[in-house]
Amino acid sequence: MTELYMERADQSVITQGLLCHIVKYLRKLRALALPKQCDDSVIAVVGQNCQHLESIVLNDTAVTNTGIAWLLCCRRLTTIIMIKTDVSPAGAALLLHGLPYLSVLLYDSMAETLWYCSIHAAILPKFGVRTVTFSLTDLITPAHFDLLSLVFPDIEWLQLNSGFQYTLQGLGYLPKLTLLSINFRGCTLDTYFEDVLKRNGSTIKCIQLLEVNIDVAKFEKILVLCPNLETIVLFECKFRSGHCSIGGKARYPNVKNVQIIRTTVPLQIVEHLLHILPNLNRFETDTLELEYSKVSKWLKETCTLKMVRCIKWLGVEAALSIRKEFANIDLQLDFSIFKNCDIRIVNSPQVLMAEYGDLAPLLDLTKYAKLDVNHHLS
Prior knowledge:
Blueprint: E1 3-5, H1 16-24, E2 31-33, H2 40-49, E3 55-57, H3 65-68, E4 79-82, H4 89-98, E5 104-107, H5 110-119, E6 131-134, H6 142-151, E7 157-160, E8 179-183, H7 191-200, E9 206-210, E10 213-214, H8 216-225, E11 231-235, E12 238-239, E13 257-261, H9 267-276, E14 282-287, H10 292-301, E15 307-312, H11 316-325, E16 330-332, H12 349-356, H13 365-377
Parallel strand pairs: 1-2, 2-3, 3-4, 4-5, 6-7, 7-8, 8-9, 9-11, 10-12, 11-13, 13-14, 14-15, 15-16
Helix pairs in contact: 1-2, 4-5, 5-6
C-alpha cells in the first residue's frame, strides 16, 4: 500500500494506539492523511518507519513541534498540509530548513514563520517551496512581502487570504509565479496590484479575485498585463456597470477558463466578456441569465467550447434541450445534472491541495451548489 487517507476515521474505532500499529507496518507509504486523534506519538512512528513518504496531511490534529521534528526523517517529503494544528512558526521553520525537497507547505501562520526565519538567521535563507498561502489569521504587511520574494524566490502558486485589510505593496519579482489568488476583502484593485502584474504578469496563467470591486476596464487591464493568462476566477465580487462595446475589436485568445461565482454581473457585461474571449474551453457560473436564443448563438460562435457549467439557468427541460442541440459540448446547465469532470492523478500535490487546502486553479462549483441548496432547504 502506497496511499492511506484516514482523515475521517472515527476516534472511537481508530485510536492513537491503533494508528501507530497501522502506520508501523506500511513502510512503502507515499501519501498519508491522518485523523484528528493523531498526536506526536503517531508522527514519531511515521518518522521512524515511512522513509518513502512524499505527502502528509495533518489538518485538525494535535501534533506539536515535538512531533513535527520526526518528519525530518522522511527525507523525500515534498508536500505538507497542516492547517489548524498546534505547530508553532518555529516548527514550520524547522521543516523548511530540514526538508530539502519540500515544495508545498500549507500552514496557517505563514506570516509569523517568515518573521521567525528572518530573525533567527545570520544570513537570510532561501527555500525551494513553490506554493505559499497566507490564511485568515495572517497579518500581512509590506515587510512580509519584501521577505516573501527573498525567502521563497521559486514561488509558483501564491494565495493571499488574510482576514485583515492589506495591499500588495512590497511584493517583488517572482519569476516563476503562475497562480495568484487574492482576497481583497471588499476593496478595489489599486495601483499596487497593477504594479505586481506589471512585474509578474508575463508568467501568470491563473488569477483568482475574491471579494473585490471591479469593472470592465479593470478586467481588461488584467488581461492586457497578463498576456499568457489562461484561467480567471471571480468569487463574491462586485462587478460595477460601465461602458463596454459589444462590437469592440479587442480579443484575448489565450484565456481558456472562466469562473464567475456569487458575483452579480450585468447582462450586457456578460455578453461583452463572452465576446472578447473567443477561445474559451470552459465557462462556469452559478447563475446564467442569458436567454435560450443568446446561449445558443454564443455556443455556435465559440467553436472551442468544451464545457459549460451552471448551477441555475432556465430549468432542467431547457438544459436537456440545448444539450441535444450541442451534443459535442459538455453542457451542465442545472445542478441536478452535474457530474464530476476533473481527472484526478493519484498522490498529486495539486489534488491534495485542492482536497485538503482548498487551493486549485478552478474552484469546486459543486461545493457551492450544495451549499446553496442546503441554504434554501434550511
